[in-house]
Design a protein that fits this description.
single chain, 311 residues, TIM Barrel, eight-stranded parallel beta sheet, 11 helices, 11% strand
Length: 311
């Protein structure tokens, strides 16, 4: 089975533009780079990833382009742009040019902004027009405070290709299910909105057991179905709660429980379609199936990924 991780990060704090890391758990305040993940990802059977920005600078987006060339599994980058710039269209065009096909979407770090209504500001209309005209997607990094503004943005840009990161960050540890599911009910009625099955374990807090995410996952499948959900690791944030393979295993069990037979869509096809990734899943699946005796050694798998990407 081909698996696409729709949401993973790399970062290098020495670059100096990851301000949020100062308040993050100490274990995250170090560099996380391809050498730290590639073997884990290959051992888990994940062939491809979408690399998501983690700093509010265009320089970091270009840094991610560079890292993508070091990691044969990266098939797309979701970057950052100054959406309030007067010439935002020129900024987006420059990133598209520099990415040479890697830029698949943009993500402002709305959850870190003081104004919970920022996404709905009319002054951002031009930026969203440019994102849409460029054929890019929009990742909504929000929590429940921002969901009303996101809804208004969806109403203003009904054709915008949007994905809700980490299911909108429900307050799982606080048990506020009803408030969250009411917003999910409204948001999911917009057919262009997709949702990432990601980031849920790290929302639990201690000592809440990971079983607490199950009603949230069930609700996501109920609202978005197998067609609009995509799995993401949210690595390395994930490492504060679980390892890469464990979250993949948990997510696969839950996907089978609430949408039997949906794994091909949730763990690959939906991300490929949403981000318009240059992956022929049928061809890759046939190649994988032709290698029943292939070594599962991570180094060997990584070398094979590299050959396929460059072929």
């Amino acid at each position: 089975m081909i698996i696409v991780d729709a949401h993973q990060h790399y970062w290098q704090p020495a670059r100096g533009d990851y301000g949020w890391l100062g308040q993050a758990p100490a274990m995250l305040q170090r560099a996380f780079l391809p050498r730290d993940l590639c073997a884990q990802r290959a051992a888990a059977g994940v062939q491809f990833s979408v690399l998501i920005q983690a700093a509010p600078t265009e320089e970091e987006t270009r840094y991610l382009f560079d890292l993508a060339h070091q990691d044969p599994g990266i098939v797309g980058v979701v970057g950052w742009v100054d959406m309030e710039a007067n010439d935002v269209g020129a900024h987006i065009d420059a990133l598209i040019h520099d990415g040479k096909g890697l830029l698949r979407g943009l993500r402002p770090m709305a959850q870190d902004l003081a104004d919970p209504d920022w996404l709905a500001r009319p002054s951002l209309d031009r930026a969203f027009d440019c994102i849409q005209d460029a054929g890019l997607s929009f990742d909504a990094l929000v929590d429940m405070r921002h969901l009303p503004a996101l809804l208004r943005r969806l109403q203003r840009h009904p054709q915008l290709n949007v994905v809700l990161d980490h299911a909108g960050k429900p307050a799982i540890g606080d048990g506020r299910f009803d408030q969250w599911t009411c917003w999910i009910d409204e948001l999911s009625q917009h057919p262009q909105l997709h949702c990432k099955l990601s980031g849920l374990l790290t929302l639990l807090g201690e000592p809440v057991h990971e079983d607490a995410i199950e009603p949230y996952v069930a609700d996501l499948f109920s609202h978005f179905g197998r067609e609009r959900l995509m799995w993401g690791s949210d690595w390395p944030v994930l490492t504060t709660r679980a390892d890469y393979a464990h979250w993949l295993h948990v997510a696969m069990i839950l996907a089978e429980r609430y949408a039997s037979g949906s794994q091909a869509e949730v763990f690959a096809a939906n991300a490929v379609r949403f981000y318009a990734l240059d992956i022929d899943l049928t061809s890759h699946e046939k190649t994988l199936n032709r290698r029943p005796g292939e070594s599962r050694d991570p180094a060997t798998l990584l070398a094979n990924q590299n050959k396929e990407k460059n072929s």
